[in-house]
Amino acid sequence: MLKLTSEEQRMIRLFILLTISRKALETDWIQLEKASLRLQDPYLELTRATLDRISKEMSEIKQYMFRHQMKVEKQKNDGLFTEYFYHCRGYSGSMRILNTHLKNQVHDYITSCFTTISRPS
């Protein structure tokens, strides 16, 4: 059995986190565009800036994964856990992550993005 390095584990988890975060924000973006809010533009700008940040981070992670021959695929979600299958350096494995843990991590990540994004000049 292949033992992933701590850096490989970190990259896999970050890839999963960013993928879920991006999907959530893209869904919210669609809802925000449809909403009739008095101050709709700031919400859209904040969401767009966060999506741009996620895209930049995803690009770096995907480059790392390409260089290290890594792939991650979502397998199944049984309501309690989501299972991910990974390929790394010619070996394969899987990891199961508690859905509430994923949700909390996505919440914390997006919250930190919202509180650290500076207004473009």
Give a nutshell description of this structure.
With 121 residues, this protein is of the alpha+beta class.
Compressed to H and E, one letter per element, the order equals: HHEEEH
What structural category do the secondary elements indicate? alpha+beta
Strand order of the largest sheet: 1-2-3
| SS element count, helices | 3
Helix content: 55-70%
Mean pLDDT across every amino acid position: 91
Measured on Cα atoms, how large is the radius of gyration?
A: 16 Å
Unreliable runs? none
Strand content: 15-25%
Euclidean distance between termini CA atoms: 51 Å
Envelope shape = globular
Give the beta-strand count: 3
How would you characterize the largest beta sheet? 3 strands, antiparallel
InterPro entries: YhjD-like (IPR058600)
Pfam family, one: YhjD
Describe this structure in words.
It is a single chain. The protein is globular. The mean pLDDT is 91. It has a domain at 6-68 and 105-116. Strands 1-2-3 form a three-stranded antiparallel β-sheet. With 121 residues, the protein is an alpha+beta fold. It has three helices and three strands.
List keywords for this structure.
121 residues; alpha+beta; three-stranded antiparallel beta sheet
List the helices and strands and how they pair.
Elements (H helix, E strand, L loop, with lengths): L5 H29 L5 H28 L2 E8 L3 E8 L2 E8 H18 L5
Antiparallel strand pairs: 1-2, 2-3
Helix pairs in contact: 1-2, 1-3
